[in-house]
Amino acid sequence: MSESNQVAPTGLSASESFQWPAGSFDGVIAARCLAFLADLLAVCILLVLATIAFGVLGILTFGLLWPGAALSPLIALAYFTFTLGGRHSATPGMRWQGIELRAWNGRRPGYLQAALQTILFYASVAIGTVLVLLVPFFNEQRRCLHDYLCGTVFVRRSV
After folding, report:
1. Partner of 15 at 20 to 30 A CA spacing, among 69, 70, 87, 147?
2. How far apart are CA 38 and CA 112, in angstroms?
3. Which residues pair with 152 in a beta bridge?
4. 16-75 pLDDT, tens per residue?
5. What is the mean pLDDT of residues 8-20?
6. CB neighbours of residue 41 within 10 Å
């Protein structure tokens, strides 16, 4: 797909339907699962590095910066928001699996929609556990509950 942010026709609004090419949703469920595991590993590595950094800074400042470690959950939010809202519309794990996030009208999502996607994903999984993740098995576009709530869809990049 194009690197530009204008993937869909210029005049298309969010309320109009976008015709997805054939094969856009093939294998998306498995790809999303594998991509999430890869991204989870990356976020865990970043969290370990942040913990070490806050530990060293805490020692150097005699404990004044240890409360900064409470900001560590923002690492996952920033990771997913900046990669999903960026020019590739995909995290490194998603790029590895050949999928990307799109708004329902075919355009690339912005940072606000990417942040909403991330927050709704973690909130819906925390509240509904695995039941939320069963939704893609019952719809043609393989969208999860949080995809419906923020108007996004994951598609194959090669289509």
Report:
1. 87
2. 23
3. 103
4. 567 777 777 888 888 988 999 999 999 999 999 998 998 898 899 888 888 888 888 899
5. 54
6. 11
The two three-digit tokens of residue 24, written as one number: 């856009």
> CA–CA distance from 53 to each of 18, 22, 77 (Å)?
46, 47, 19
Three-class HEC string of the chain: CCCCCCCCCCCCCCCCCCCCCCCCCCCHHHHHHHHHHHHHHHHHHHHHHHHHHHHHHHHHCCCCCHHHHHHCHHHHHHHHHHHHCCCCCCCHHHHHHCEEEEECCCCCCCHHHHHHHHHHHHHHHHHHHHHHHHHHHHCCCCCCHHHHHHCEEEEECCC
CB atoms under 10 Å from CB of 52, counted, come to 10
Instruction: Write out pLDDT tens, residues 61-85.
Output: 888 888 888 888 899 999 999 999 9
